[in-house]
Give the backbone structure.
Amino acid sequence: MADSSSDAGGLLRDPARFAREVLEPIRAIVGERGVITDRDQMQPLMVAWRDGWKGRVPLVVQPANTAELAAVVAICHRTRTPIVPQGGNTGLTGASQPHGDDSEIVISTTRMNRIRALDLDNDTITVDAGCVLASIQDAAREAGRLFPLSLGAEGSCQIGGNLSTNAGGVQAVRYGTARNLVAGLEVVLPDGRVWDGLRGLRKDNAGYDLKQIFIGAEGTLGIITGATLKLLPLPEATATAFLATGSPAQAVAWLRRAKAALGETITSCELMERACVEIARKHNSQIQDPLEQAYPWYLLLELAGQGAAEALEARLLPVFEAGLEAEELLDGVIASSAAQAAALWRIREGAPEGQRLEGSSFKHDVSVPISQVDRFIAEANTALSQRFPGIRSFAFGHLGDGNIHFNPIQAEGEPADLWQARLPEVNRIVHDIVSQLGGSITAEHGVGRLRITELQHYKSPIELEMMARLKLCFDPLNLMNPQKVLRSDLLDNLSETV
């Protein structure tokens, strides 16, 4: 692999040369609206909303279309200028966050926000990468269709970023993660060429499925500029229930029963422990406890389908009652209105914000087989309590697909800085248990900067080598989002053996 860092570093540290060879040619392509050089104006794009990363770059480029973006990337390739692709800047692992040393430029897809085509017979919608997720959901809904990807940041996150991180969300139990919802992609490659893979086909067995290489690659192999997405029938009714249970094991047992009886009407099945409810209520006065008694664990279940809501509720009720009789469930309530359903979801949505306000916490976005969820939570809590007395359990997440946000919180009344210094050891304890159970250390948030070292510890050597060879194949100069997902020293070491 050619060493891009030394060439780019010299160029970016020479303002006159940078202006002559990079800035002005780019300005000629995208116009004044497409470049930001003022530090204050670019500041919102430099700061991560979580975990405190702060970047610094000499230039932010905002192309208006794929042709402009491709021309910009071609200039960066020719001048060996590293690129950080950025969508809505809502990620949780620093994948879209530039480093703080003026060693890169940011290419933002914010201005690329057209809905290009809607094909109702084919049930697809083709969009620019900068389209905000909520706008795609709205366009689909207006056409009587559903685009089911649903995230907390859907009002500001962009579909290009969603696909680049293979976002999951609360409806993955039925519809899968982002990669399951893509029919085709358009991608600008690291040398500026454009791959047009915007095919709306349900069946295409002509060689490798190239789109899947770029989904989840976090901008390290190319920049997604457009996507053809799958649409589904718009559900006519929903039913929402908040159910109490004694343990994750009992929750899994009831979920098995529910899947057998309710099938694909289950769109979401969220697990929360009691601490999540208490801390959400503590920090948000609008959140109420829907049950009269406190219980150790809860499930938030949502069904969706055609027909009347009463029909869904009629199917859910006997499954709920059977769970009570089998002692898989202890109590519960089924929402009788949209307002009550929203109030139940507010509990789940309030857990992350309440956790943030409670002090230092250790965030883990992990997945294990659903059958191992109870064992994972129990073993991780035991190991952490033995090592760090006073640490508080705080676990919630998507039980339906085994994705648990295991985010223990510091002991009450102690300095947050003291606990934050323990993050590496906490990570190792938790991730070792995840690995032993055949899980993943990052289920839906990606690797980015946050998990880059952890990834090299838990991936097998052959898996890391395959990933690195793929990176070198597409981006031998390591210009696309360097030092994200794969460390540069791994690429350097591999390139020396080729």
